[in-house]
Specification:
Helix content: 55-70%
Radius of gyration: 26 Å
Shape: rod-shaped
Length: about 80
């Protein structure tokens, strides 16, 4: 009887060890989230308000990308939990 119990405990330990060694395969980070947003180009003689408008559009794109990054990370932590 004790032999079966020991074998069962060894099997459970081996399974737990294998799962721990395998780790978690995380999905790849979307390419869009690695992109850096460039400043709006400044053209000589162009009104400053036009440059400011393009700069604000670039900031809006960067902020939207940052929001997608947060959503991606939140999705990962909800599926895999946090690690310490």
């Amino acid at each position: 009887m004790t032999g079966c119990s020991a074998t069962e405990r060894l099997n459970k330990a081996a399974v737990a060890s294998g799962q721990a060694a395998a780790g978690i395969v995380l999905p790849p980070l979307p390419d869009d989230l690695r992109k850096q947003e460039a400043h709006a180009p400044v053209r000589e003689g162009e009104p400053l308000i036009a440059i400011l408008a393009r700069e604000r559009q670039a900031l809006d794109r960067a902020n939207a990308r940052q929001g997608r990054s947060v959503k991606f990370y939140d999705d990962l932590t909800s599926r895999y939990g946090t690690r310490r």
